[in-house]
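Human:
Focus on the backbone:
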Amino acid sequence: MDRHCGGLREGPQKLMSGETGDRLAMADGVNRFLGDTPGRLIIKLLVVSIIVGFVMSAFGWSPYDIIYTIRNFVLDLWHSGFAALGRVGDYLLIGAVVVIPAFIILRIISYRR
């Protein structure tokens, strides 16, 4: 079997052995995790950071504005969520006042038969 054909099928890790193969395997794992090589990733992140910084500056936003907006959203959701649960509890009590006695009466009537 030709080494080149087998190498293409088995990947570069199979061709190398020992410490070099381990380094290559670790580099592949890092590249796979990051989605690209570290150098190219840093350049991409720098470019995107400049663009996002420019847009945020144009709108007059700061990172603190985003953090406070997220915080206020979670707090409003938290408070309105408990208010909704309170309304559900009210509905439950109002319905139970009618349903439980009706259930007991129906069970008593069907028990006699």
User: Anything to note?
Assistant: Residues 54 and 60 are 10 Å apart (CA to CA). The chain has two domains: 1-61, 62-113. The two ends are 87 Å apart (CA to CA).
